[in-house]
Amino acid sequence: MTTPTDVLGPIDFVLLEFPKDRLTGETSAAIKDLVENGTIRIYDLMVISKDEDGSVTELDLATAAPGTAGFDFFAGARSHLLDENDLRQAAETLKPNTVAALIVFENSWAVPFVAAARNSGGELIASTRIPAADLMATLESLDHTTSAGA
């Protein structure tokens, strides 16, 4: 019998880009809450800055000043699944004068579900992620279609 300690939840990789002049710490606080309540488990988190001239630096979370955009909480989040090549590829996609968080995390909320499915002989045969913006646009389009026909 598979127990939740024998399985992992789905693993996601995200790259979030922010204009440097709009950093509030709100996003890092939300991620911290997700970690603290067990919704996700962070495997890797890199913070990357791209200057106006295109130069790129990685913020060292272990030496970041306390409270630096709220990312000091994540100083130990390095499993080394992400490497310099990932950093370089992420930096190539960033716009100048931005800061980005490159994150690999486990959806730990799903562990009991995954264990139950495995115990029942279930196997994942397909998976995809629908971006929230795409879903919202589709729902808005459907709403306009429904409203126009009413």
UniProtKB/TrEMBL annotation:
It holds the Pfam family DUF6325. InterPro entries: DUF6325 (IPR046288). This is DUF6325 family protein.
